[in-house]
């Protein structure tokens, strides 16, 4: 029991994933008390009621009752041990989940669901460090919608928000798993495309353009691209390079 | 029925699961890998307000974005009935168990060996001190600290009492924080102790009690039990190794 509580405390202190901690806690219970199975039902303010089964396994048909069960710890066989403080475990699982929800909100742009400026900068810094350490190239793409102001001016801000939201979703779908996309300003986006050499970039940009649906209802946009480490291996110079190319592309559209 | 960990990068799966659980109405998410395909099962309660995109579509896109392997998504719709709500699950049983008693009657180690138990945490306005009273078998010890040190004072007083009981380590309070409340309104406190002699110098403890300083004292005991687990749990019950300190009988 003590180890379980220590795991949760460690999560709170070290910023580990709350969901992983909940599963570790259930696994710990199973191991410590030789249980067949364990599940916890928690009620968290952002995510509502959530059911977690040990091992992340799918629910079986005969366990449907768990979905309607009151918040609590459920075990098979029944756990009858005085060392188990159910109320404390329950509260800590809620806390772990809340930490995850808060962390998600802190890292993501609420409109598009992409990373926000601050978290993108952090991820870019990490990508540069990885690239410098292991010599793996990546491409930084800065992207700016052309004449987006007219969408807002002529159709209103809700319409502009809808365009950005839709674009965020399209970018997410078009990117490969492992690619990172962020909304770093009003109508500015940025992407980190790992292991991408120069010759692959045009095809990726074309895919992004098609995904964005530029031939239909979405505004055109301009790109600025820079490669790490071949063109720059420091954050500032890499961003400056991509930004200056973006500016050139923008000027060409005017 | 034993838990089977899913063979997948856990970091990525944590992110995927969190994003799936954020979809409206999602109550549970399960994962399985068969034939190199990631199977995702979502249980979704019927909600009046839906996102602009159907859950299966959103879930498939999210899953595909997070997984390098092919993905299949099963969405199980579920409408709770009144009969479902108040009943605990029939197949996964629960037992109502009281939390450990305040006098530490059930504070025992994994193998049933007795651990130091918290008797009381007292604040003394006259001396502006805080006292933590511990007992181990019939040995009783008191640790003191300045009351205005707050939670950290409770941690320091608990450490002093443990030392008086002969605990063979000398941790210092790194930090102590109130994390929130339990559903029965007890305060949850986490503490971190540092012991430079240990391989892992930081140990965390967590506990809930009626007041923050009581919870801090309990959390300190919890964290202490992680330092040299064998030494502490093995040696403390034997009086012959207990150091003479500020003991009271």
Furnish the topology, listing elements before pairings.
The complex is a heterodimer of chains A (254) and B (249).
Chain A: H1 2-14, H2 18-32, E1 37-44, E2 48-53, H3 65-68, E3 72-76, H4 86-107, H5 117-134, E4 138-145, H6 148-155, H7 157-174, E5 180-183, E6 188-194, H8 201-212, E7 221-228, H9 235-253
Antiparallel strand pairs in A: 1-2, 1-3, 4-6, 4-7, 5-6
Helix pairs in contact in A: 1-2, 1-4, 2-4, 6-7, 7-8
Chain B: H1 10-21, E1 26-34, E2 37-45, H2 55-66, E3 71-78, E4 117-124, E5 129-136, E6 139-146, H3 150-164, E7 172-181, E8 187-194, E9 202-209, H4 212-224, H5 229-235, E10 247-248
Parallel strand pairs in B: 2-3
Antiparallel strand pairs in B: 1-2, 4-5, 5-6, 6-10, 7-8, 8-9
Helix pairs in contact in B: 1-2, 3-4
Secondary structural class of chain A? alpha+beta
* Individual helix count of chain B: 5
Q: Which value, in Å, is the CA radius of gyration of chain A?
A: 23 Å
Beta strand count of chain A: 7
The pLDDT mean of chain B sits at 71
What structural category characterises the helix and strand content of chain B?
alpha+beta
Number of strands of chain B: 10
Describe the protein in words.
The complex is a heterodimer of chains A (254) and B (249). Chain A has 254 residues and is α+β, with helices and mostly antiparallel strands. In chain A, helix 6 packs across helix 7. The longest helix of chain A has 22 residues, at 86-107. Chain A has helices at 2-14, 18-32, 65-68, 86-107, 117-134, 148-155, 157-174, 201-212, 235-253, and strands at residues 37-44, 48-53, 72-76, 138-145, 180-183, 188-194, 221-228. Chain B is α+β, with helices and mostly antiparallel strands and 249 residues long. In chain B, the strands form three sheets. In chain B, strands 4-5-6-10 form a four-stranded antiparallel sheet. In chain B, strands 1-2-3 form a three-stranded mixed sheet, with helices on one face. In chain B, strands 7-8-9 form a three-stranded antiparallel sheet, covered by helices on one side. In chain B, helix 1 (10-21) packs antiparallel against helix 2 (55-66) and helix 3 packs across helix 4. The termini of chain B are far apart. At the A-B interface, helix 1, helix 2, strand 1, strand 2 and helix 3 of A face helix 1, strand 1, strand 2, helix 2 and strand 3 of B.
């Amino acid at each position: 029991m003590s180890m379980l509580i220590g795991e949760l405390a460690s999560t709170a202190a070290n910023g580990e994933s709350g969901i992983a901690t909940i599963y570790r806690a259930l696994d710990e219970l199973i191991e410590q008390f030789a249980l067949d199975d364990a599940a916890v039902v928690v009620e968290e303010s952002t995510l509502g009621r959530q059911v977690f089964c040990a091992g992340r396994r799918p629910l079986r048909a005969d366990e449907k009752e768990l979905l309607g069960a009151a918040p609590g710890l459920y075990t098979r066989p029944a756990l009858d041990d005085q060392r188990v403080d159910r109320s404390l475990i329950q509260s800590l699982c809620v806390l772990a989940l809340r930490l995850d929800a808060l962390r998600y909100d802190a890292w993501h742009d609420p409109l598009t669901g992409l990373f926000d400026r601050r978290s993108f900068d952090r991820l870019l810094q990490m990508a540069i460090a990885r690239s410098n350490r292991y010599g793996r190239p990546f491409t930084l793409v800065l992207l700016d919608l052309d004449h987006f102001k007219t969408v807002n001016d002529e159709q209103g801000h809700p319409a502009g928000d809808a365009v950005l939201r839709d674009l965020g979703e399209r970018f997410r779908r078009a990117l490969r798993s492992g690619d990172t996309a962020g909304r770093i300003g009003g109508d500015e986006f940025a992407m980190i495309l790992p292991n991408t050499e120069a010759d692959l970039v045009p095809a990726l940009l074309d895919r992004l353009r098609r995904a964005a649906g530029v031939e239909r209802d979405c505004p055109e946009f301009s790109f600025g691209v820079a490669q790490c480490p071949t063109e720059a291996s420091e954050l500032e110079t890499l961003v400056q390079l991509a930004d200056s190319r973006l500016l050139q592309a923008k000027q060409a559209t005017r | 029925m034993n838990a089977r960990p899913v063979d997948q990068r856990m970091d990525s799966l944590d992110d995927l699961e969190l994003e799936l659980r954020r979809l409206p109405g999602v109550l549970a998410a399960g994962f399985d890998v068969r034939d190199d395909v990631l199977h995702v099962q979502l249980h979704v309660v019927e909600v009046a307000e839906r996102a602009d995109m159907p859950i299966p579509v959103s879930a498939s896109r999210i899953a595909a974005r997070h997984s390098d392997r092919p993905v299949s998504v099963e969405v199980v719709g579920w409408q709770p009935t009144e009969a479902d709500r108040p009943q605990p699950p029939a197949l996964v049983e629960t037992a109502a168990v009281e939390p450990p008693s305040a006098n530490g009657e059930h504070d025992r180690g994994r193998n049933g060996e007795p651990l130091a138990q918290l008797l009381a945490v007292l604040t003394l306005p006259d001396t502006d001190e805080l006292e933590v009273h511990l007992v181990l078998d019939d040995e009783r010890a008191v640790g003191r600290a300045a009351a205005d040190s707050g939670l950290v004072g409770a941690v320091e007083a608990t450490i002093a009492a443990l030392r008086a009981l002969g605990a063979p380590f000398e941790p210092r309070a790194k930090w102590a924080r109130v994390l929130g409340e339990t559903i029965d309104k007890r305060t949850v406190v986490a503490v971190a102790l540092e012991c430079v002699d240990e391989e892992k110098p930081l140990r965390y403890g967590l506990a809930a009690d009626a007041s923050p300083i009581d919870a801090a004292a309990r959390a300190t005991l919890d964290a202490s039990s992680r330092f040299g687990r064998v030494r502490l749990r093995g040696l403390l019950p034997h009086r012959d190794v207990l150091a003479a300190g500020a003991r009271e009988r």
